[in-house]
Amino acid sequence: MDKIILRGGSSLHGSIEISGAKNAALPCMAACLLTDETLILKNLPAVADIRTMEKVLGTLGTLVSHETSPSLLAISQSLTCNQPSEFKAPYELVKTMRASILVLGPLLTRFGKASVSLPGGCAIGARPIDLHLEVMSKMGASIDIHHGYVEATLPAGKRLKGIDHTFPYVSVGATENSLLAAALADGKTILRNAAQEPEVSDLAYLLVAMGIPIEGIGTSTLRIEGQIRAGGAHYTIIPDRIEVGTFICALAIAGGSLSLTGVIVEHVAALLMALERSGCKYQFDATKKILSLERSPSNRLQPIHISTAPYPDFPTDLQAQCMAVLTQAEGTSTIVENIFENRFQHVMELQRLGASIDIDGRTAHVHGPSRLSGTTVMASDLRASAGLVIAGLVAEGSTTIERIYHLDRGYAHLDHKLRSVGVDIKRIKT
Ligand code: UD1
């Protein structure tokens, strides 16, 4: 298992190119199951989860070919799914990546059957899929759970039917699976209290490009006109707002001046607003899509209050990184995690680096500034690992982060990118 060793104390200077959004790319890849025509996707990030989704789609009979860009950061893909030999997403793949559940909607709506392993819990919480299944069932599918698999079927010759559905609470994955299912359903589907995350909109725009009319993209009510067939498309994935946010946090803690290229600034508004309150400055060049950030060492960070919530509010996927930053604020900050019940696993590792943090239920009180000192820490999930890297940027001496396969699932060459802006960081291959 590879590990990362970094030495704290350098400020960041230079420019970083932002990769495509993993969480937009995965549902867009699943959309290839809706058509026998070819889907060409561009600007996918070169991360492990994309390769896992290629395997899932390959198992389902999809012809996948991909090309990596000369910078090694981006992937272009061609995906063609004629007739699957199997309709089953196996446990071995689903357990490593929960987003595999997104093949359920498109398989069911196009072929009338799907068998997908239940993903089980993960480090950040229980993460059930009841909201996904409720929609499929309301659209007319029979859903059975056998031997750890969701078996979804439609009577022979029948299509899923369009529905008017209100989600009891916001779920990104359930909204995406429902969009995919509604694409080939009989009639109109209305999804209310839908997730408004940019990744959901990216999938919706791809579906429109594939010939599925959708109204209300970017709002909490989506109206989908189901079609008999979908076509192929050429589509470019949006930049990764969580990667942007991770580098914003890196700059906020380490100081210096950093330009991030290929940014959609509205997607990181909640983080920028929070860090502005804490004392960080930024400028955005809308024509060039460059976000420029600056923080001098004399500019002390102020404590703030953060509460995670669905988009456009503060994303849970930036909570760990922001917590690392707030260990250096002058006073006590509070962070409330409202999305996942167990997403404070990075706290114990941050404490091992010297952070002073108390947990009270879903609230973390972060007392700063703490003098962090490097040691060996263990990554527990994708974003927690990024939080540990960020803390390591200011820890005295060297910090070793183990189990970085978590990091590789979602960040395209984070170590290279940080090294290019002056961080003393290396990956040890074992
Ligand atoms: C997606 C993102 C993940 C992000 C999360 C929240 C991908 C591949 N992953 O995950 O990075 O952290 O959104 O922004 O895009 N829930 C249920 N029943 C369900 C579905 C969800 O109870 O059927 C609960 C979850 O346990 C959680 C909340 O709803 O408490 C939100 O989860 P959801 O938005 O569905 O997250 P994911 O789509 O799994």
Write the layout of secondary structure elements.
Elements: E1 3-7, E2 12-17, H1 22-30, E3 39-45, H2 48-59, E4 63-68, E5 74-80, E6 88-89, H3 91-94, H4 104-111, E7 113-117, H5 130-138, E8 142-146, E9 149-153, E10 164-166, H6 172-183, E11 188-192, H7 198-209, E12 214-215, E13 222-225, E14 233-236, H8 241-254, E15 256-261, H9 269-278, E16 281-285, E17 290-295, E18 305-307, H10 319-326, E19 331-336, H11 346-352, E20 356-360, E21 363-368, E22 376-378, H12 382-392, E23 398-402, H13 405-410, H14 414-419, E24 424-428
Parallel strand pairs: 2-15, 3-14, 6-7, 10-11, 18-19, 22-23
Antiparallel strand pairs: 1-23, 1-24, 3-5, 4-5, 7-9, 8-9, 11-13, 12-13, 15-17, 16-17, 19-21, 20-21
The structure holds uridine-diphosphate-N-acetylglucosamine.
Uridine-diphosphate-N-acetylglucosamine is lined by residues 23, 26, 98-99, 125-132, 171-174, 199, 316-317, 339-340.
| Percent of residues in helices | 25-40%
Q: How much beta, percentage-wise? A: 25-35%
Query: Total strand count, please?
Result: 24
Morphology call = globular
CATH architecture of the largest domain: Alpha-beta prism
Tally of discrete structural domains? 2
Query: Please, what is the CATH homologous superfamily of the largest domain?
Result: Enolpyruvate transferase domain
Q: Give me the side-by-side strand order of the main sheet.
A: 22-23-1-24
Total count of helical runs of at least 4 residues: 14
Cofactors and ligands: uridine-diphosphate-N-acetylglucosamine
Q: Report the CATH topology name of the largest domain.
A: UDP-n-acetylglucosamine1-carboxyvinyl-transferase, Chain
What structural category arises from helix and sheet content? alpha/beta
Question: Can you summarize the main beta sheet?
Answer: 4 strands, mixed
Low-pLDDT sequence parts: none
**Would you tell me the overall average pLDDT?**
95
